[in-house]
Amino acid sequence: MKLSILDQAPISSGQTAKDALNNAMELARAGESFGYTRYWIAEHHDLPGLASSAPEVMLGFIGAHTSTIRIGSGAVLLPHYKPYKVAEVFNLLSVLFPGRIDLGIGRAPGGSAEATSALSDQFLQKVYKMPELVEELLHFLHHDFPEDNIFSRVKAAPVPADPPRAWLLGTSGKSAVLAARYGMSYAFGQFMSEQDGTAILKQYEQAFTPRKPGDVPQTLLTVSAVCAETAEKAEEVAWSSLIWQLQAEKGGQASVPSIEEAKSYPLTGKDKEKLAKMKQNMVIGNPRQVHAAFTRLQEKYGTDEIMILTIAHSPQDRIHSYRLIAEEVLG
Predict the structure, then answer these.
(1) Residue at 77 is within a domain
(2) What is the tens place of the pLDDT at every residue in 305-316?
(3) Which residue numbers delimit the Luciferase-like domain (predicted)?
């Protein structure tokens, strides 16, 4: 089983955005030392509790502080941007950090309607054109437009010896089929989906069309998880994340609360039902319990790579969770 990291660069109470971004870099460095395969950082806009609005900038920072772990976006939200510019940025990163760059793309807005409007015109129309945007992006990355295409002589310079690996991130059969159609790798966001992921991943594998000889389907599963020495401690650490999500849905506190703040948050009956449902989509426990849960997920979904999203108030608790999981699963 391979393990990887998804980071949203959360801002905890008592910390600044700069603290959160430095914590992201430290997590990537720690993940590299623990044996994680890849580290991805997300893109969000006008969300006060999350610090990463430009993953491409963070990847330059993180790449300079790591040496072997693959690094990438989870994800660049393609409808906001022209494919050519995205290809240029990630080709540049691939020149700087050869053989290490993943270009994960998605189609979500990543923020409020107002932020979406500020970022791009006609976002919904571009969402509908996502297949065309993806195809154009891949042509720029591989410099293989048909000769009669207007962009056939345009290079997304600098051109790396090893192009970035293109991934499509999604939670639906539509995204899976799109990834398969263009021979892309596919990341299924189990942590934010109520869909039948097994059927979706099967759709992807059955529809996969190699872009070039030797291409094979590649998938990973993204899971929200918190690990500590004991199940009780893991539950305590995870409570900050759960209450933070609950507050965010209510338009409340933007930053991740401390364990003490989370414990003192007043809950209604409806809140308790909501939290119970949220916990069902998470893995929380001691190393042995987390390993067992990951094994079940691996068998269920048929993928050999699990990407872990861990939110905790304390950066130390977060890194410790990743360490414990790596020691248990990777040995």
Answers:
(1) yes
(2) 999 999 999 999
(3) 1-299
User: What six digits make up the tokens of 143?
Assistant: 């410099």
Range of the domain at 200: 2-226+283-329
The pair of three-digit structure tokens given for residue 316, joined into one six-digit string: 């130390």
- 183, part of any domain: yes
Cα–Cα distance for residue pair 51/29, rounded to 1 Å: 18
CA-to-CA distance for 180 and 215, rounded, in angstroms?
11
Q: What does the alpha-carbon distance between residue 262 and residue 244 come to, in Å, rounded to a whole number?
A: 8
* Two tokens, residue 6: 């998804």
Q: b/e map of 253-279 (b: 16 or more CB within 10 Å)? A: bebbbebebbeebeeeeeeeebbeebe
**196: Cα within 13 Å, side-chain hemisphere:** 4
The total domain count for the chain is: 1
* pLDDT tens digits, one per residue of 215-227: 999 999 999 999 9
184 lies in some domain: yes
Q: Tell me the average pLDDT across 70-82.
A: 98
Let me know: does 282 contact 191? Beta carbons within 8 Å.
Answer: yes
Residues forming a β-bridge with 56 = none
217/304 Cα distance (integer angstroms): 12
DSSP 80: G
**What is the torsion angle, in degrees rounded to the nearest 10, for the CA atoms of residue 23, residue 319, residue 186 and residue 90?**
30
Instruction: Tell me the HSE value of 135 on the side-chain side, using a 13 A CA sphere.
Output: 10
What CATH number should be reported for the domain holding residue 169?
3.20.20.30
For 291, phi and psi rounded to 5 degrees? -60, -45
Which two three-digit tokens encode residue 198? 């097994």
Q: Which among 235, 264, 236, 270 has a CA at the least distance from the CA of 250? A: 270
Helix (H) or strand (E) holding 225: strand 219-227
Q: Which two tokens stand for residue 195?
A: 């869909």
Among 59, 38, 62, 41, CA closest to 50 = 41
- Determine what percent of the chain falls in helix, strand and coil, rounding each to the nearest 5: 50, 15, 35
